[in-house]
């Protein structure tokens, strides 16, 4: 009970003062002049004043509030190492049991440390969420159960109460890890790229260690590195697009974990400008279509020759009016032929400009990995066709002598609907296709490779074939310029021509059979590009060595995709059929695994600033639990008293309370007040009457 006196005047205070002031002045004047009955008049006046002020005795019934104590539990991935999870769980239950013995405490348990992207251990964010609705005067303190590797420790205390930390793990832990010191994000394909890395051993080992270097899952070298020193590394980027460079070291006896025995760098490979040789034969309306397209591609260096006047032509034109340079046949097709990524013959026919032996060089160039495109016109069906040269061994089809002159819509074949060169071409999804017609096509026989487009009477229009290590394409019409000129609305000539050229030059994105995987947050996305009707499931090997299957579903013709939510950060291996791919899920080289040795040093400054303490669960204490940990006792403390001792942790109690009810007893209420007032006035009247 809480007793107090309050006044509830019957008149307002200003009116009460105006009424009682003159009377009090008269009473004091009477006392000053020593008049008889002065003290009785003052007593009667005081009784009247108290009656009008109406004093009331209040009896408040209050319920004391509890102090809020937060238990912040670290559930980050580093807590899964060894027996840290068991220690954590036992400590949480032990603390809850100890705190439950005190009615002064309200306990809140917050599991924190595992952010959405698993990058860091953020316990203070969880601490703030635990106290977000608690006034500062009711915060009793907090205790963090963690391995000590916390990444959001503030510079100033976040609570005005003791902050304690109980550290899991052991004091003599050892870990060896590797990390990149300098790792570029981009590199030129086929060119050396310089990086640096460092191997760190908390055990103080100063020896050397073997470091395995792998690119896209393939080991390329083994280097000897001195522990603690920054070591140089030079690699060669093998392919355009995303490349995964991995450094790995062996696990040593007694090491905490081998999760950080790998370091990953993601390097985007950039191809140097592709070199294309375009040789145009007889001038025609679409001669500049290929030239304009290739010149507009920033990734292509184009060398273009147009043969306007063959050697056998004798028309009397003066020498000084002919071309300023001769066609450098030997330089292009013998000495520097391997410098080109693609050779295009646009309506070219054999007219002795190229010696017959040079066609053998071109065929050999294709067999060894080069690319050749034949953009055919009527000359391909004639007697001077390049099909009648030694180049025949590299060609995917022979002409049958037919030149079909009729209107037709180019259409995708069933194979072409799945092929990455022609798949999803704009306008191909309706019948007839939403593009213009063509009016000429060259007939062929015995086609090889893949027919991805068909023309008049369903004859092959676009062929793609592999010859040895190289690739060959054949476009059996010279009418593509109609699309470029916008005839009947035009067509997707830019997409089609560019895809053909880049497929011939082995662009990875245009491979018929391709498996890719990528991390999106903590989700692993898988994409399978195939010419088959079904892709089947993908087999995934997680960073910890576990395996799981993910069904790939058809998203569009030739594309099958699948996704799986993961819980581990690291490098995932994905396999489907004969193809494999690597993907890194989660942050690359996340701080969560940069250092996994348990420590008291990170949280100690923040704890000591609040009067708290940091100690290991494995240290000696007043009681040992069944799993071998020791847990300090819990003691309520008040004010600025010490909040920790040798074997105990203190939490502050609060003086805050909540008002439940109030009882009022007026002192001058009822007959008692009336009697006291009449007694005082009667005594004054009696004394004045004598």
From TrEMBL:
Keyword Transcription in record: no
Keyword Cytoplasm: no
Key words of the record: Membrane, Transmembrane, Transmembrane helix
Matching InterPro entries: Class_I_gatase-like
Positions of transmembrane segments: 12-33, 40-58, 667-686
PANTHER family (UniProt xref): BLL2462 PROTEIN
Protein name: Glutamine amidotransferase domain-containing protein
């Amino acid at each position: 009970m809480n007793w107090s006196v309050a006044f509830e005047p019957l008149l307002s205070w200003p009116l009460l003062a105006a009424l009682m002031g003159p009377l009090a002045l008269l009473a004091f004047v009477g006392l000053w002049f020593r008049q008889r009955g002065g003290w009785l008049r003052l007593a009667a006046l005081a009784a009247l004043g108290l009656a009008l002020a109406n004093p009331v005795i209040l009896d408040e019934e209050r319920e004391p509030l509890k102090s809020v104590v937060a238990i912040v539990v670290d559930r980050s991935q580093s807590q899964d190492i060894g027996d840290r999870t068991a220690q954590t769980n036992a400590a949480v239950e032990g603390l809850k049991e100890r705190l439950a013995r005190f009615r002064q405490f309200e306990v809140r348990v917050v599991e924190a440390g595992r952010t959405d992207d698993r990058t860091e251990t953020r316990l203070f964010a969880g601490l703030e969420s635990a106290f977000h609705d608690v006034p500062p005067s009711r915060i009793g303190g907090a205790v963090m159960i963690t391995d000590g590797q916390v990444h959001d420790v503030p510079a100033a205390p976040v609570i005005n109460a003791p902050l304690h930390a109980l550290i899991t793990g052991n004091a003599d832990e050892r870990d060896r890890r590797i990390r990149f010191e300098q790792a570029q994000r981009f590199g030129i394909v086929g060119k050396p790229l310089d990086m640096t890395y460092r191997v760190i051993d908390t055990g103080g080992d100063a020896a050397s260690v073997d470091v395995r270097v792998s690119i896209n899952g393939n080991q390329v070298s083994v280097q000897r590195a001195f522990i603690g020193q920054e070591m140089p590394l030079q690699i060669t980027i093998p392919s355009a697009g995303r490349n995964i460079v991995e450094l790995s070291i062996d696990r040593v006896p007694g090491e905490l974990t081998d999760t950080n025995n790998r370091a990953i760098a993601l390097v985007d490979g950039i191809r140097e400008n592709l070199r294309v040789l375009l040789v145009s034969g007889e001038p025609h309306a679409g001669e500049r279509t290929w030239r304009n397209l290739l010149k507009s591609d920033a990734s292509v260096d184009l060398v273009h020759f147009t043969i306007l006047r063959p050697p056998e032509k004798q028309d009397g034109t003066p020498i000084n009016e002919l071309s300023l340079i001769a066609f450098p046949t030997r330089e292009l097709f013998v000495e520097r032929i391997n410098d080109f990524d693609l050779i295009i013959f646009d309506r070219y026919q054999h007219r002795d400009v190229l010696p017959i032996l040079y066609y053998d060089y071109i065929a050999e160039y294709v067999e060894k990995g080069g690319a050749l495109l034949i953009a055919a016109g009527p000359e391909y069906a004639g007697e001077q066709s390049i099909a009648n040269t030694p180049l025949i061994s590299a060609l995917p089809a022979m002409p049958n002598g037919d030149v079909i002159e009729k209107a037709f819509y180019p259409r995708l074949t069933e194979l072409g609907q799945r092929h990455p060169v022609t798949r999803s071409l704009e306008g191909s999804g309706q019948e007839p296709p939403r593009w213009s017609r063509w009016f000429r096509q060259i007939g062929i026989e015995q086609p090889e490779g893949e027919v991805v487009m068909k023309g008049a009477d369903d004859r092959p229009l676009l062929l793609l074939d592999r010859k040895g290590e190289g690739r060959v394409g054949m476009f059996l019409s010279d009418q593509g310029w109609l699309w470029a000129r916008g005839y009947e609305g035009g067509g997707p000539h830019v997409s089609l021509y560019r895809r053909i050229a880049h497929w011939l030059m082995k662009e990875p994105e245009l491979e018929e059979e391709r498996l890719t995987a990528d991390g999106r947050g903590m989700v692993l996305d898988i994409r399978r590009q195939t010419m088959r009707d079904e892709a089947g499931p993908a087999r995934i090997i997680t960073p910890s060595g576990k395996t799981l299957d993910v069904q790939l579903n058809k998203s569009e013709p030739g594309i099958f995709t699948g996704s799986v939510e993961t819980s581990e950060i690291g490098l995932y291996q994905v396999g489907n059929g004969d193809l494999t791919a690597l993907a890194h899920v989660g942050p690359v080289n996340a701080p969560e695994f940069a250092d996994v040795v348990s420590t008291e040093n990170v949280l100690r400054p923040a704890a000591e600033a609040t009067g708290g303490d940091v100690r290991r669960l494995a240290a000696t204490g007043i009681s040992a639990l069944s799993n071998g940990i020791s847990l300090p006792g819990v003691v309520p403390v008040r004010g600025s008293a010490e909040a920790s001792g040798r074997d105990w942790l203190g939490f502050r109690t609060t003086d805050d309370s909540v008002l439940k009810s109030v009882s009022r007893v007026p002192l001058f209420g009822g007959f008692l007040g009336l009697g006291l007032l009449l007694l005082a006035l009667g005594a004054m009247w009696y004394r004045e009457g004598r």
